[in-house]
């Protein structure tokens, strides 16, 4: 009996492996891998603080901050993927004096962004000695120039042990300017001390650009985190499209399915338009990031409005205290019958009546839904209003529930085939588990 059960379990295991292999093969065949993608190489600029404080020997492994950074840089240079373009910029590396004007201009490119000559890059890093000031804002602007304006992933990794010692330009203001420039630049920050003021400034820089802040205390941690960030630049990402919302619905830009970036001043409403056909469902979500100090109690509003100004549906989100992002979303299914007024005139073919605008108004079956994005953020008088708060808007249009081809969420598989395969795999796994349990019981009794 045991032998027969072993055989049954083995056969089920082989069948389960076959099913899993089929699913995996199908997934691989349909999925585009990074190696198969063509495009501009990802670019990373490492910005290293070489100010006088970097000579402090307070790392947990007994090294100076400078020695820990140099060791970590060497590890990253050895491990950087061939397809990643890497560069190095310094701040505070050349001027040891007390002249503020001179010291606050001390930032230069140590190694240009491009294919890495490992020997040359490591030799350049070995020459660095803790020297001068900490002009972080200036260095961020320089790093943005180092990366160029070509399309593709652009990442800056800032490594420092202190705050900006110059104040002009303010690093947080620079980070917001870079984030608003439309170049999709991400700045990650690494702090070599646990000082609260350093953490606050580095967090501000990272949050403004969608990056991360990490505190590190030895060369090992620094090297591991640097490697993670450099390798992350090689991952394919969906770049959001920059768009400028209008002040009114009739002037709003028309959006298709995708992810969009915009900026909104405190309390401002931004309008966008989406074309939807009867029998489809519009799904939209919006996130507004508080990338600077704001007053408590705030909210974000997303409304779907027809071209006659009638509200169709809305979503709201609110927060109080320190919250990085506030989000909300909505879903609006467009009915098959659009004669809502009983006047015999369909609103599906351009309800507002403004034809001839070159954007498809008047096309049979097309209805334009306007999206109104508003917020109730406010801030102390000393906080800058420009550039506005980062807004990310996601738009999807699918078949309405109950219609062929409906999907449950963005990016999920469509159709019944994946469901059948997953159900079959689950059934096989359940049978195999039952057989193994019975086999274990039989062995226990036999022993």
Automatic annotation (TrEMBL):
Keywords: Membrane, Signal, Transmembrane, Transmembrane helix. The keyword Repeat does not apply. Residues 312-361 are annotated as: Disordered. Gene3D superfamilies: von Willebrand factor, type A domain (3.40.50.410). The chain crosses the membrane at residues 416-437. Residues 43-229 form the VWFA domain. Pfam families: VWA_2. SMART domains: VWA (SM00327). Residues 336-346 have a biased composition (Acidic residues). Residues 1-29 form the signal peptide. This is VWA domain-containing protein. It comes from Streptomyces hoynatensis.
């Amino acid at each position: 009996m045991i032998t027969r059960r072993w055989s049954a379990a083995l056969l089920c295991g082989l069948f389960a492996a076959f099913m899993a292999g089929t699913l995996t093969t199908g997934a691989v065949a349909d999925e585009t891998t990074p190696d198969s993608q063509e495009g501009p190489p990802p670019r990373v600029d490492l910005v290293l603080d070489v100010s006088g404080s970097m000579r402090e020997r307070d790392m947990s492994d007994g090294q100076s901050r400078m020695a820990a950074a140099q060791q970590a840089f060497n590890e990253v240079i050895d491990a950087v993927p061939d397809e990643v373009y890497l560069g190095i910029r310094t701040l505070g590396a050349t001027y040891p004096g007390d002249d503020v004007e001179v010291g606050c201009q001390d930032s230069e490119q140590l190694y240009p962004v491009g294919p890495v000559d490992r020997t040359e890059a490591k030799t350049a890093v070995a020459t660095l000695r803790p020297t001068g000031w900490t002009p972080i804002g200036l260095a961020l602007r320089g790093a943005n120039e180092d990366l160029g304006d070509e399309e593709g992933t652009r990442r800056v990794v800032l490594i420092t042990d202190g705050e900006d010692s110059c104040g002009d330009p303010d690093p947080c203001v620079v980070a917001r300017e870079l984030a608003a420039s439309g170049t999709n630049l991400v700045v990650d920050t690494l702090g070599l001390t646990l000082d609260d003021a350093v953490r606050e400034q580095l967090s501000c820089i990272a949050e403004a650009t969608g990056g991360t802040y990490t505190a590190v205390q030895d060369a090992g941690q620094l090297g591991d985190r640097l490697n993670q960030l450099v390798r992350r630049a090689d991952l394919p990402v969906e770049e959001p499209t920059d768009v400028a919302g209008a002040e009114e619905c009739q002037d709003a830009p028309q959006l298709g399915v995708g992810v969009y970036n915009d900026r909104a001043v405190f309390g401002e409403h931004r309008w966008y338009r989406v074309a939807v056909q009867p029998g489809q469902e519009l799904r939209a979500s919006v996130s507004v990031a508080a990338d600077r100090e704001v007053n408590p109690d705030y909210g974000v509003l997303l409304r779907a409005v027809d071209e006659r100004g009638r509200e169709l549906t809305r979503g709201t989100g609110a927060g109080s205290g320190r919250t990085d992002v506030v989000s909300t979303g909505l879903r609006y299914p467009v009915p098959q019958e659009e004669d809502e007024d009983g006047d015999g005139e369909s609103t599906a073919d351009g309800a507002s009546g403004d034809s001839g605008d070159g954007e498809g108004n008047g096309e049979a079956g097309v209805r334009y839904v306007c999206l109104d994005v508003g917020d109730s953020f406010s801030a102390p008088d000393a906080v800058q209003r420009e550039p506005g708060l980062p807004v990310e808007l996601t738009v999807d249009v699918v078949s309405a529930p109950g219609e062929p081809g409906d999907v449950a969420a963005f990016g999920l598989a469509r159709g019944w085939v994946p469901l059948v395969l997953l159900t079959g795999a689950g059934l096989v796994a359940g049978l195999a588990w039952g057989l193994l349990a019975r086999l274990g019981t039989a062995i226990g009794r036999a022993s």
